[in-house]
């Protein structure tokens, strides 16, 4: 029995070594990262070249790092008592939630105007993260904030945000989204360019970091620490509400699928790491079926962030006959939530593509033979219930493009794909799309304009220099039955 266990462990470690992508370090210029990155990689991954056991075992975390005098010295040198964050999330017209990670156990509060959050403790159990909520704010107003950390007042020009508009407000606003965001030192400046465009929120559609180490929570945490230590990203998430779901490279390995249920031993531990590193309003509608999906409302727009990995049918498991991308519970939640939505625009946000021709023969998308019936059920509900204003966004393929799905009994469904925020590798453009581009790096922007009687949504592809690559505008009347 011990021999069999040892062999399985060896095979598992060998598989991780083959698929885990190495952390990229070439071209690093950030002073914090020049000092911290080599230390973190050595401690938690063993090597930047190949994945090896870390100093603290597969469950290693900041809890272990802060016990090392050399690490504490680096934290002090760079004044990193606030190790990661702040990160905005779950904004409403009258409230905001602010996430932080401290370099050790601490207590903090957030001050917004004359409103003060409750005192929040960060502990070992949460990997020294905490979330504070501030309420009593006014809709669509610009605010600055400060953090009180163990009695010290922390401020920064990036500590600012705008609350969301209330439904019915005739305002213009934008939301950014993207995928394909591996930590690439020379490419990280795109977060500052994105911040300058002042989106109310950013939607991370998966592959938000590239981990590819299913059974190594220490490596998963390493990649989150690295990204959030970088100045441009730190400033971006301090002023932009962040929402995230995972895809294959941040849940497991390339093209992975979780399969039904929670029996896989990595599932709940990996989900716990994900939850510790984001600031979503919730993680699944039901604690009995946890996941990363959630929804939120911004004025007259409702966003549905879908988890297409955690319960996806595992094609490598012959006993898995579920034929689902979402899992039964998430699908029912989505269908019911769509029926109940009163928003003028509904945005279905998927880590993988919707259109039949957007992927490699449907191998890893909604067009796959196991998933298209579920997709068509969602599209059918839109027809049957006469749900207007639905648009689709997606990630995964390293390009940006617009797809149009014609429907004989309803308005066309337009899909805006954008998935090369920082990645260097590109996928070939698709001539079948309405338009398709892959040069440089870019993000997608959804611009909403409710100042007219016929509101509009504009899909805009924006590159690393802030230049518009392509834009397409649609009126609500064009997206109605």
Automatic annotation (TrEMBL):
<dbReference type="InterPro" id="IPR038607">
    <property type="entry name" value="PhoD-like_sf"/>
</dbReference>
<dbReference type="InterPro" id="IPR056702">
    <property type="entry name" value="DUF7800"/>
</dbReference>
<dbReference type="InterPro" id="IPR029052">
    <property type="entry name" value="Metallo-depent_PP-like"/>
</dbReference>
<keyword id="KW-0732">Signal</keyword>
<feature type="signal peptide">
    <location>
        <begin position="1"/>
        <end position="20"/>
    </location>
</feature>
<dbReference type="GO" id="GO:0004035">
    <property type="term" value="F:alkaline phosphatase activity"/>
</dbReference>
<keyword id="KW-0378">Hydrolase</keyword>
<feature type="domain" description="PhoD-like phosphatase metallophosphatase">
    <location>
        <begin position="179"/>
        <end position="468"/>
    </location>
</feature>
<dbReference type="Pfam" id="PF09423">
    <property type="entry name" value="PhoD"/>
</dbReference>
<protein>
    <submittedName>
        <fullName>Alkaline phosphatase D</fullName>
        <ecNumber>3.1.3.1</ecNumber>
    </submittedName>
</protein>
<dbReference type="Pfam" id="PF25077">
    <property type="entry name" value="DUF7800"/>
</dbReference>
<feature type="domain" description="DUF7800">
    <location>
        <begin position="81"/>
        <end position="155"/>
    </location>
</feature>
<dbReference type="InterPro" id="IPR018946">
    <property type="entry name" value="PhoD-like_MPP"/>
</dbReference>
């Amino acid at each position: 029995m011990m021999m069999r266990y040892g062999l399985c462990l060896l095979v598992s470690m060998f598989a991780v070594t083959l698929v885990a992508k190495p952390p990229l370090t070439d071209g690093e210029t950030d002073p914090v990262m020049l000092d911290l990155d080599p230390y973190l990689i050595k401690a938690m991954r063993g090597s930047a070249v190949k994945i090896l056991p870390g100093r603290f075992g597969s469950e290693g975390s900041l809890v272990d790092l802060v016990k090392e005098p050399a690490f504490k010295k680096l934290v002090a040198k760079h004044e990193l008592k606030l190790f990661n964050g702040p990160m905005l999330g779950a904004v409403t017209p009258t409230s905001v939630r602010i996430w932080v990670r401290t370099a050790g156990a601490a207590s903090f509060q957030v001050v917004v105007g004359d409103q003060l959050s409750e005192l929040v403790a960060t502990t070992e159990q949460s990997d020294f993260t905490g979330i504070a909520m501030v309420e009593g704010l006014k809709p669509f107003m610009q605010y600055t904030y400060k953090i009180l950390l163990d009695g010290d007042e922390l401020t920064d020009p990036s500590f600012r945000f705008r609350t969301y508009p209330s439904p019915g407000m005739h305002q213009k606003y934008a939301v950014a989204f993207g995928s394909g965001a591996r930590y690439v030192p020379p490419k990280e400046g795109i977060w500052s360019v994105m911040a300058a465009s002042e989106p109310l929120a950013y939607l991370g559609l998966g592959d938000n970091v590239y981990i590819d180490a299913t059974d190594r929570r220490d490596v998963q945490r390493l990649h989150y620490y690295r990204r959030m230590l970088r100045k441009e990203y730190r400033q971006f998430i301090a002023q932009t509400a962040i929402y995230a779901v995972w895809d294959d490279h941040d849940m497991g390995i390339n093209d992975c699928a979780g399969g039904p249920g929670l029996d896989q031993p990595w599932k709940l531990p990996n989900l716990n790491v994900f939850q510790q590193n984001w600031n979503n309003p919730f993680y699944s509608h039901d604690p009995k079926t946890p996941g990363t999906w959630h929804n939120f409302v911004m004025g007259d727009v409702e966003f549905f962030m879908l988890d297409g990995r955690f319960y996806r049918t595992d094609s490598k498991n012959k006993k898995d006959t579920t034929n689902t991308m979402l899992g039964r519970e998430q699908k029912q939640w989505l269908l019911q939530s769509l029926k109940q939505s009163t928003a003028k625009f509904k945005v279905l946000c998927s880590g993988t593509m919707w259109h039949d021709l957007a992927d490699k023969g449907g191998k890893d998308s909604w067009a796959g033979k196991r998933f298209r019936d579920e997709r068509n059920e969602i599209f059918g509900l839109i027809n049957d219930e006469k749900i207007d204003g639905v648009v689709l966004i997606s990630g995964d393929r390293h390009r940006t493009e617009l797809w149009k799905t014609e429907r004989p009994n309803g308005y066309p469904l337009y899909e805006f794909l954008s998935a090369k925020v920082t990645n260097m590798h590109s996928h070939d453009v698709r001539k079948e799309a309405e338009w398709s581009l892959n040069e440089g790096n870019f993000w997608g922007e959804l611009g909403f304009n409710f100042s007219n009687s016929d509101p509009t949504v504009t899909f805009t592809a924006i590159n690393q220099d802030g230049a518009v690559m392509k834009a397409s505008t649609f009126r609500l009347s064009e997206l109605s039955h």
